[in-house]
Amino acid sequence: MPQVRLPKVQKTERISPQPVEEPQEPQEVPNPIRITALIVSHNRADLLRRAIASLEKSEEREKLEILVVDNGSTDGSTEVESEFPNTRFIRMPRNFGLTKAINVGVRGAAGEYILLLHEDTEVPPDTARVLAAALENQSEAGAACPLLVTPDGAPAPQIADLPRPGHTDLAWRPADPERGEQPVEYARGAAIMVRSFFLRAMRQIDERYGTYGSDAELCFQVQRSAKRVLLVPATRVVHHGRTELSRAERAARDADFKLGMALYLKKHFGMVRGVVFRISVALGAFGGLLSFSDFRYHLRLFGALWSGQKIDGTQPQ
Prior knowledge:
This protein is an alpha/beta fold. It has two domains: 35-239, Spore Coat Polysaccharide Biosynthesis Protein SpsA, Chain A, CATH 3.90.550.10; 247-307. Helices cover 36% and strands 21% of the residues. The protein is built from nine helices and twelve strands. The strands form two sheets. Strands 1, 2, 3, 4, 5, 6, 9, 11 and 12 form a nine-stranded mixed β-sheet that branches. A three-stranded antiparallel β-sheet has the order 8-7-10. Helix 1 (45-56) links the parallel strand 1 (35-41) and strand 2 (64-71). It is globular and about 70 Å long.
């Protein structure tokens, strides 16, 4: 009987199961940036250079982001970027006004706190730390600002009452540093710190404001949220203020301010108040035309008030 060959059976190795590592939760990398110093600048290269240089000397510099939003400058401000490699620049194609530039900067800011600055300020090393500590330690504070001083060290006009019907001529006055930390109703926007989540919770500052009015709106919204604007005189920021303006620049600035005031009154006191204010300032400009006192200025002012032309990117360049 023939033998039947059976196929060889391959021996199988017994493989011990290897322990499977459980997937680990991705670890959150801590954000090293605690404060963003946000500077909006337009055609003031020399002052911008000073402002950035002062911030570079800040305490805990590694936790401070310096962010500049340049509003379409044509004076050589672009050269400043190459001088400060540790500063971030966002360049706007034209002058969209202060309010839009702030909103653009806030969207790009990395800090937990945002120090809003004008380019005509010089900030001592302790300012960012002191203001952040004030907001951190005082839960009722929604915004904190340093004492503004002139280049010779005297307190500069900085605080006023918020606008209301019948009281629209802002009587800026210096704060009294002897009173120590103090709540104020309205502080100039040249230097003011807020929590970044508050600005984002606002969605943004109302962009119907051009250049003037955004600081009043911010102070109003802080107090509307049951918080306070806190002035902290322990730290002092030099405010150089505006330089000389041409007739056309002065008319554009004044029209933007008055239109911002009309919007503020309309938003917070009703449409009638806003419309009445706008008509009254337009009639005032028209009266200036008839008096032939600085005719070209009043002509430009009346034209901007009549058309509603603000400094918001739609103005003639």
